[in-house]
Structure formats: structure tokens, C-alpha cells
């Protein structure tokens, strides 16, 4: 497998193209783990770990965005719109004086 094919396969997996996008890391979920439309982030099926796993999720996407920048696989604003909104709705309410509140750190 060539490097280009590996990158394409990995990028497609993040969007869950084979599964119709139901488990895309760039979308909202309606059950289980991930970002919800209302701004919540759930991990381990029931825990609001915005400042733990949610932060790790955002950091991984930021690294991916940087790595793919200026390539044919670059993520676009529409790809990242759920992530941008999630930062505003999910993280901002729990940051006070530059620190994440303890009740969502896991």
C-alpha cells in the first residue's frame, strides 16, 4: 500500500465513509460517546468528560488538521464546523480563569 493510499484510507475512516458517517469523529452523536448537539461531550457511555477525553479528542483533531494542511487531504471549514461549534458550546462554559473546571475533567 502506497503512502497516499494509507492517508486516504485513514482520512476516510475518520469520516466513517464506509459506515455512512454514523461514527464520524467530525459529527454529532445521538447515543454513546462523542459530541452531542446540545454541547455535551460524553465518554464511557454516561460520563461528561469534556475536560478529559473531550479535550484529547479536540487535540487529536487539531494535530490532524495541522498534518493535513496544504495537502489534497486538508480538512475544510465545513469538515470542522461541528468541532468549531463544539469548542464554543462544550468547552468554553467550563473554562474559568484559564482552567478547566474539575467537574468535567474525569
Describe this entry's structure for a reader.
The protein is mainly alpha-helical and 106 residues long. It is 43% helix and 8% strand. The protein has three helices and four strands; from the N terminus they run αββααββ. Strands 1-2 form a two-stranded antiparallel sheet. A hairpin with a 2-residue loop joins β3 (95-96) and β4 (99-100). The chain is globular.
Relative helix content: 40-55%
Spatial gap, N to C terminus: 39 Å
What is the typical, i.e. mean, pLDDT? 89
- Helix vs. strand class: mainly alpha
Secondary-structure element series? HEEHHEE
How would you write the strand order of the largest sheet? Answer: 1-2
- Provide a count of the helices: 3
Outline the low-pLDDT stretches.
none
The total number of structural domains is 1
Based on CA atoms alone, the radius of gyration comes out at 15 Å
Strand content: 5-15%
The main β sheet shows up as:
2 strands, antiparallel
> In one word, what is the shape?
globular
What's the number of extended β-strand segments? Answer: 4
Task: State the gist of this model.
The protein has 106 residues and is mainly α.
Topology:
Elements: H1 3-14, E1 34-35, E2 41-42, H2 50-68, H3 77-91, E3 95-96, E4 99-100
Antiparallel strand pairs: 1-2, 3-4
Helix pairs in contact: 2-3
Keywords, separated by commas or semicolons:
single chain, 106 residues, two-stranded antiparallel sheet, 43% helix
Amino acid at each position: 500500500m502506497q503512502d497516499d493510499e494509507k492517508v486516504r484510507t485513514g482520512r476516510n475512516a475518520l469520516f466513517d465513509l464506509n459506515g455512512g458517517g454514523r461514527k464520524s469523529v467530525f459529527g454529532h452523536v445521538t447515543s454513546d460517546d462523542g459530541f452531542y448537539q446540545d454541547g455535551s461531550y460524553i465518554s464511557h457511555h454516561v460520563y461528561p468528560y469534556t475536560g478529559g477525553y473531550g479535550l484529547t479528542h479536540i487535540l487529536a483533531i487539531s494535530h490532524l488538521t495541522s498534518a493535513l494542511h496544504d495537502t489534497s487531504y486538508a480538512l475544510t471549514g465545513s469538515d470542522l464546523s461541528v468541532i468549531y461549534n463544539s469548542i464554543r458550546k462544550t468547552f468554553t462554559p467550563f473554562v474559568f480563569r484559564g482552567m478547566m473546571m474539575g467537574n468535567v475533567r474525569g
